[in-house]
Design goal:
The complex is a heterodimer. Chain A has two domains: 71 residues; 44 residues. Helices cover 67% and strands 0% of the residues of chain A. Chain A has four helices and no strands. In chain A, helix 1 packs antiparallel against helix 2. Chain B has seven helices and no strands. Chain B is globular, with a radius of gyration of 21 Å. The chains are: A mainly alpha, B mainly alpha. Chains A and B meet through helix 1, helix 2 and helix 3 of A and helix 1, helix 2, helix 4 and helix 7 of B.
Chain lengths: 128, 208
């Protein structure tokens, strides 16, 4: 099916590949597979190689994971930055906002509670 | 308006708000995309709980002692290849080749089943070592998060076989194709969650 200007223009379904030729669709999936595999191998081997300064390893791992999730979104779910994908991107942006609020908020509150948890002797001193 | 006409004078195309409703295929995939995003939010709550509890081992074993990264690497490879095979099934559906579609879906399902087999093996081994979900808050959060993903994969396998059967009996009908498209989004989304999972749980858990 070729993409019809008119009715379909301005909209794109997530995961949609059928406005492409087989070759283009196949190339997209192969590119996604190669990029994802490279990022995965990098994430698994990075801590062993010692290429990255020890305390920075978690940050590097998270960066690799975010990059791989991006590659999956673009090459497998076909969420791109094209004008037809505006609705999908907006929904994704809202989802990311909620997830960020939930994760950062939880970790912030819980570590803060942990730090400010009153020790027994402090409590005794205050009661005196 | 003809396609050629629109190509010559793109300015003439009416604005999106005046083009009427989008085709059903696009509306359904968009709705399913919103469901997937809500599923990501659900998982983020499990991730947050895990992150908070990850050090609460109650004197029991921690991630470094429990996790076998070779198994995790195998799981990751199986799920990534499964996602790729699912894409191949999507291309076969695009060109309406049933034999290739069924083959690619079968490969997708077998790789997914292999992933589940390794995960089950890991869970059985952990429980056998006395590191079950009741051992510590860390292990409760671990089994809840990884188990929730495994449950999603299991449901995905049920959905996958249903779709193979429906394509077999009903053929590439529009409504069946829309269901398959939703299944494919679901399957790719599970792989995205696994990327977050193997990084935060297994890699960070073994290296910090």
């Amino acid at each position: 099916m070729s993409k019809q200007p008119g009715r379909d223009a301005g909209h794109s379904a997530p995961g949609e590949t059928d406005h492409q030729s087989i070759g283009a669709a196949l190339r997209g999936y192969v590119a996604g597979l190669v990029i994802a595999a490279l990022l995965t191998v990098a994430a698994f081997t990075l801590p062993m190689t010692g290429l990255v300064w020890g305390p920075a390893v978690p940050v590097a791992l998270v960066a690799l994971a975010v990059a791989q999730m991006g590659a999956h979104l673009v090459f497998f779910l076909h969420i791109t930055s094209g004008p037809d994908d505006a609705n999908n991107i907006l929904a994704l942006a809202f989802g990311v906002l909620i997830i960020a609020l939930l994760m950062v908020g939880t970790l912030w509150i819980m570590t803060s509670l942990d730090h400010h948890h009153m020790s027994a002797e402090l409590l005794q001193r205050m009661q005196r | 308006m003809t396609a050629a006409h629109a190509k010559l004078e793109p300015d003439i195309a009416p604005p999106i708000s005046e083009r009427g409703p989008a085709p059903k295929k696009i509306v359904i995939a968009y709705g399913f995309w919103i469901f997937l995003l809500s599923d990501f939010v659900l998982f983020s709550a499990f991730f947050a709980a895990y992150a908070v509890q990850s050090t609460a081992t109650a004197g029991g074993p921690g991630g470094r002692a429990l996790f076998d990264l070779k198994l995790v690497a195998a799981e990751t490879a199986l799920l990534l290849l499964s996602s790729f095979a699912c894409g191949m099934a999507g291309i076969a559906m695009m060109v309406k080749r049933e034999r290739w579609f069924q083959l690619a879906m079968a490969v997708t399902g077998l790789l997914g089943a292999g992933f589940l087999a390794i995960e089950t093996h890991e869970f059985v081994k952990l429980v056998g070592e006395g590191a079950g979900p009741q051992r510590s808050a860390f292990l409760s959060a671990f089994f809840a998060l990884v188990g929730c993903h495994g449950l999603h994969v299991t449901l995905g396998l049920v959905w996958l076989t249903t779709m193979m059967a429906q394509i077999r009996t009903k053929g590439f009908r529009d409504d069946i194709e829309r269901r398959v498209a939703c299944f494919m989004l679901f399957w790719h989304a599970l792989d995205i969650i696994w990327v977050a999972l193997f990084t935060t749980v297994y890699l960070l858990g073994s290296n910090i």
